[in-house]
Amino acid sequence: MGKYDFDKEINRRDTDSMKWDVKPGELPMWVADMDFQTAPQIREAIAKRLEHGVFGYSDLTDDWYMSYQNWWSQRHDFRIEKDWLIFSTGVIPSLSSIVRKLTTPNEKVIIQTPVYNIFFNSIVNNGCRPLESPLRYENGEYSMDFEDLEEKMADPQASLMILCNPHNPVGRIWSREDLAKVGELAKKYGVTVVSDEIHCDITAPGTAYVPFASVSDTCKNISITCIAPTKAFNIAGMQTSAVVVANPFLRHKVWRALNTDEVAEPNSFAQVVTAAAFNESCDWLDEMRAYVFENRKIAEDFIEKEIPEIKAVKGQATYLMWLDISSLNKSSDEVAAFIRKETGLYITEGLEYGEAGRYFLRMNVACTRSTLMDGLNRLKEGVLKI
């Protein structure tokens, strides 16, 4: 038994939860937040700050900088200089600001699909066009298609690439070799890489991710990295993240972008939760990872045995299962809608992540084991009725 109880049921209905804003009887396993209470150390830090009772404007503290620096140094073997760090209210506001600042309208932004659907929004909403470099999917595994990626980077209208590292939704941790190749291609064709690394701490126990900027001087100098404690510690609603930029020319542009868009100032709790997460909550994180990856294993085994019509793609990161439904010969939007209507299970259609996700579903398993089994049984029921 661990120190923390991840089997504890927390009723999230009627709590302004986006995830749980569903009809009675429905089970949401879609959006990427966890059903677990966050680490007690974080909750205690919030309570302590709350007791002070005054919530005016905040300056960034040394604690905030050091919490990121120490975590990435100790946990990910990457040294971040203090002046590389810029506060932002979130990874998505950062991405949108960066797209606005570093492109001109109608330029193209490279993404490797299937990929997190909000990347499309950050690109399109800022007057640019997504340029998809689909990942290869062979024998149940994903890999980068470097021939295609080079072709896309060679497009003179493509000056920016958004990398997902580790990759959401397919759960891949990109290798040092893969990332080095991306960096070399980006340098060759004058492309800036924005690496979204928000899922980096949700990896299989004993497995580490590789920060893009840590791979080489080339990767460091042509990149912008978006990081946060929010996904790993279930504090997305606290609006806190950081952008890491080693290149001083790029850093000034990003700093101006975030300030122009007014997303560069912390609220009264943003730094408190960050410091408590990184400085005091690593035991909670390690137990959560063990629990979630046991959930993944249970789900993989259940699907293989009970729902052989579909296949779970093996993943080394995230609490999101990526399910191959190609043998059903129906598009994911149709399948997801049918399963929700018939069983109440709400999971995400793969088409949300681009055309490359047409025959896939995404399912969030960061929940109690009893909720997981309920979801898997509903999934089985839905698939058998198709």
Write the layout of secondary structure elements.
Layout (H helix, E strand, L loop, with lengths): L26 E2 L11 H13 L9 H15 L8 E4 L2 H12 L5 E4 L6 H7 L4 E4 L3 E3 L2 E3 L2 H8 L4 E7 L11 H14 L2 E5 L20 H5 L1 E5 L13 E4 L3 H13 L9 H11 L1 H25 L4 E3 L6 E5 L7 H12 L1 E2 L1 E2 L10 E5 L4 H17 L1
Parallel strand pairs: 1-13, 3-4, 3-7, 7-8, 8-9
Antiparallel strand pairs: 2-10, 5-6, 9-10, 11-12, 12-15, 14-15
Oligomer description: single chain
CATH topology of the largest domain: Aspartate Aminotransferase, domain 2
How many E-type strands?
Answer: 15
Structural domain count: 2
CATH architecture of the largest domain: 3-Layer(aba) Sandwich
> What's the end-to-end separation, in Å?
40 Å
Identify the CATH class of the largest domain. Answer: Alpha Beta
Strand count, sense and closure of the main sheet?
7 strands, mixed
Low-confidence stretches: none
What is the approximate shape?
globular
User: Helical amount among residues, as a percent range?
Assistant: 25-40%
Number of helices: 12
Radius of gyration based on Cα positions: 20 Å
Short recap of the structure:
The chain has 386 residues and is α/β, with parallel strands linked by helices. It contains twelve helices and 15 strands.
